Amino acid sequence: MKKLFLLTAVCVAASSYGVAQTAVPARDTSIKGATIEVIQSYKPEVKQRPKQEYTPSLPPVDNTHPVFNYNVPQQTLNYSYNSLPLRPLALGRDTTLPPYPNYVKLGGGNLSTLFLDAGIGSLKGKNYETAFHLHSITQQGSIQDQKSSLTDFEADGTLHKASGQWHGFVDAMRNQYSYFGYNHDLYQPTADSIKQTFTSVKVGADMQKENAADSKFNYHPAIAASIYADKFSTTETSFTLNAPFYYRIDSSLDLQIAANGIFTQYKNAQQSFSNNIIQFDPGINYHTGSFTAHAYLSPAIGSNENYLLPNLGATYNIPKTLFTINAGWTASVRQNTYEQLTTENPYIFNSFVAPQGMYAPQQTRSDEVYGGIQTNLGNHLSLSGRVSWWQYDHLPVFLNNIGDQKQFSVLYDNNLNATSLQAALTYKVANKFSADVQGIFYTYFNGSQAKAWQEPGIRLRGSLLYRPIAALSLTAYANVLDQIYALQNATIVKLDPTLDIGGSAEYQLIPRLSVFLQVNNLLNNKNERWLGYQSYGTNIYGGLRFKF
Q1: Is 388 in contact with 329 (CB distance < 8 Å)?
Q2: Strand pairing of 539-547 and 485-488?
Q3: DSSP of 408-469
Q4: What is the rounded end-to-end Cα distance, in angstroms, of the chain?
């Protein structure tokens, strides 16, 4: 029994030891008091600072949706007939900045010059702003009956509402001339017959969204009405309606469609006729990266005929260069209203008299095929150039060959071709100094007239601004016209080149008060923009400008 008991105890002990040995591995999976450390290799890096570019480059193409402003085609022609000013008349809206948004500028000088220029810009509130501008100048030259005067009042206002931005304007003008270009040795016209006065009143309004650039669908309707009259019972009324709509497909593609109409009625004692244009402008605009392009094909209904007007263009910024190139084909129509023609040449007959008799004006179609380039040189100099081929149909030209020759007939040159070269140079150093030179050179050929009468073949303009100190501003200008042909006593004559040089100075005495001096035609040249009509001689006038 003892042996049996001992054997049983030994077996139980052995069994317990085996169980204990089996549980040990489970306890050994736990590591008490140990720390796991992860070591990573770290290499410090300093972010490179962008290298400053010391040579300016052309700005990148803006890919945001632009706000389109439709302009009536006949008001944007590059061959605008408005002559360069050859008489002392350099009036413009003053750009005085707050805190003195209002000003009055008064002056006088030789040639019986009286000068007034005033503006009010302080009438504004949280949701509106207004501006008023009045300017007037009168002068009298040394030639008998050589006198002129101009008075113009402009009012402009914008109202910001939840429905959109509402804008309106009023413009009233009175412009008086004298027909002094007659032969003073042969004719003695009555004083009343050589005075001409043009008056006009224009009102208009337009509306657009406040944040038009942020919307896919935009619109900008506009209406305007005007009346234009002269001293000899001629009146011309006009009504304009523009209704453009734009839709942005994506960040690079926009669609446009516009309906536009200009309705004009002319009337005097001998004539009465309409001069209208209705035009539709469907088109597309594409812009991405360094490339932009547009394509429009606009049908138009005119008073004399119908038109199909292409407007195609593209611009490309050459990568990694400072060069931008552009090319295109633009066609447009101009009404040749009485207001447009007399703004260009105020000495025309008011009844559109021609050697064959009286007739209604013709509308002018112009086509330009062009290519150009623009670049910068250094930090301050920019250059641009453009070469164009032109086709004009019914281009108005002015012929002085009737009676006492004090007035011009309006003729129309059909199928006239021209080539032109435009060049411009601008040099600017901050707001201290700037110089600008522009020139355009025309060559006319294949027209129905012997010459493009009174159209300058060369137009040059230069301007200079220098501020030696903060209180003193000095400016200078030079205008040149050449290659002007006229018909005098059945003989083709070339007018002498015109050169008008002048400048101005303004010195601020105190923050609210400054003195100014203006000099025009410094060389006292007898310039003739229109045959028989010499410009004023040297004109010097000055005065004070008060800001409030």
Answers
A1: no
A2: unpaired
A3: BEEEEETTEEEEEEEEEEEEEETTTEEEEEEEEEEEEES-SSSS-TT--SEEEEEEEEEEEE
A4: 133
Whether 515 contacts 547, CB under 8 Å = no
Tokens 């309707």 -> residue: 221
- Angstrom distance (rounded) from CA 263 to CA 336: 12
Residue 358: predicted pLDDT: 52
Identify each DSSP E strand in 179-288 by its residue range. Answer: 195-208, 217-219, 222-230, 235-250, 253-267, 272-280, 283-288
Among 269-273, 396-400, 499-503, name the one with the lowest average pLDDT.
269-273
Containing 293, the helix (H) or strand (E) segment is strand 291-302
Q: Measure CA 135 to chain center.
A: 22
> Is the confidence at residue 21, as pLDDT, over 50?
no
**Mean pLDDT within 284-289:** 94
| Element housing 145 (H / E) | none
**pLDDT tens, residue by residue, 359-383:** 667 899 999 999 999 999 888 999 9
Burial class (CB in 10 A: 0-12, 13-18, 19+), 360: middle
* Summary mean pLDDT of the chain: 84
User: From residue 376, how far is each of 54, 99, 315, 326 by CA, in Å?
Assistant: 12, 35, 16, 15
For every residue of 2-42, DSSP letters joined together read HHHHHHHHHHHHHHHHHHHHHHHHHHHT--TT---------
The Cα–Cα gap between 192 and 451 comes to 33
Task: Compute the residue count for the chain.
Answer: 548
Q: How far apart are CA 117 and CA 137, in angstroms?
A: 9
Report the b/e string of 226-257 with b at 16+ CB within 10 A: bebbbeeebebebebebebbbebeeebebebe
Indicate whether 8 pLDDT > 60: no
The answer to whether the CB of 116 falls within 8 A of the CB of 94 is no
Kindly state the tokens that stand for 43: 């290499």
212 vs 84, more confident: 212
Q: pLDDT by residue (tens digit) across 28-62? A: 444 455 554 544 444 444 444 444 433 344 344 44
Burial classification of residue 547, based on how many CB atoms lie within 10 Å of its CB (0-12 exposed, 13-18 middle, 19 or more buried): buried
Extended beta strands in 304-393, E state: 306-317, 324-334, 353-354, 357-358, 364-377, 381-393
| Whole-structure pTM value | 0.80
